[in-house]
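Q: I'm writing up a methods section and want to include an example of the input and output format. Could you take the sequence below and give the corresponding predicted structure tokens, formatted cleanly so I can copy it straight into the document?
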Amino acid sequence: MDTQNSNTGGDGESGANLRASSYYVLQATHCCAQCGESTPVFALAVPAHHESTEADIELDEDCDSTGLDPMAFHEWLFGPEQWQRIEGPALLSQVGILSAPVVRTLQALAPTVRQNPDRNGQWTNFCEHCGSPVWEGTLYPTPGQPFCPKDDAAAAQITVHAVDEPLSAFTAMCWTDGYRNKWPLFKRLGVVCSEAE
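A: Here is the clean output for your methods example:
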């Protein structure tokens, strides 16, 4: 599988840390901080049961260490990548590598998303009016932002393009169902989140 990033050689899945059998291209609108115009913005999300090499390590009861003895930690740190199945959905952020088929889909569905050379090739939204990059911090983390809807009504404003093709990516951050403020978005994707029993 080809991957595209300005800093990699396109050597297949070797740089990926997340993969899924399908994915979503999300579309919303955002007011550009540079020109003040409303511009479309896009994000990638994956359904439940995707796979990652970056799954959380369980902390011990004191929540101050991983609970791994030094040898186990060394094996975890330097061992081969281990793909782990993730039960919940995720919104991808700080994406650095995408497989070539995903890039082609983005070019068709999200024409204002492209690699940003000023951010080490990170896939970035750009304003369709002035061409300025849109900072992800204005799109994802806080309720009321385009990809953090406050409620079902706000989530209904997000257009969801379901793509029934595999995704392979390197992402530095995933917003999972562990973030309660993402529950309205995931409900829009068909996943109802609730407190663990």
